[in-house]
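Hey, I was hoping to borrow your eyes for a little while. I've dropped the whole record in just underneath, so have a look:

——
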Amino acid sequence: MRRTTQSMAASAARSPPAIDRHAVRLITRVSVALAAIATLSLLHLLRHASIHCFPASNPLALTISLAPFPRTSCDAASRRVVPPDRRLAKLRASPRWRRRAVSLATSAFPPLRGLGLLAASSRVLCLAAGAGHAVDALRAVGTRDATGIDLVDFPPLVRRADPHHLPFSDGAFDLVFSDDPSAISGALFAARLASEAERAVRRGGGIALAFDREIETAAVAALFKKSRVVDVKDVTLDGSQLDWLRAIHDTSNCEYF
């Protein structure tokens, strides 16, 4: 009886190492299998990276896939770059772009002409220009020199520039214009933006900015230390209710009304 008990104890003592060895062998086999599968998958992708995905005759191939889960490396080249001019033509054909152009031509530009701030020969800087609606609309009505800037460039109408540090010389423009209310409300330093606008516009030139109706007019006017506000008007621009502030850069007279 004593021998049987000792034999069972010895067998139990030897069982865990045997089980451990079996588990280690199983894990090793699974690891090797997974490594083999990963290697074969990589080789398959490398072999299918065909140069035919990027035709030499078309330098505008772009590695952007339209499928959420590309099946081959060729899926990454399934769409071509749209040239800026073609992209602009597509935007111009959209109803929203046309509505915006009509709103600017009928609501924003005529008062500026009446104040003598906008003419065919005017040099105009458009702040927060986005895709270039205002730049395109200005050129469409005959203003030959219109420049658009934004934090993100959008060629061919808009170039990248920081409105807090404009890359233009003093007095380079006859008019600083913005139809986007975020030019003021979204600026990190609105006072700095206003100061840069006044620096970039010539003496006697104009500043015309749209801003949200929730913002007090006096607060916006107070940003422009070297200009005389000549007009503040409620307008509807492409369905949005906005206020327009128009000012003349004139360091000799800084009265607001």
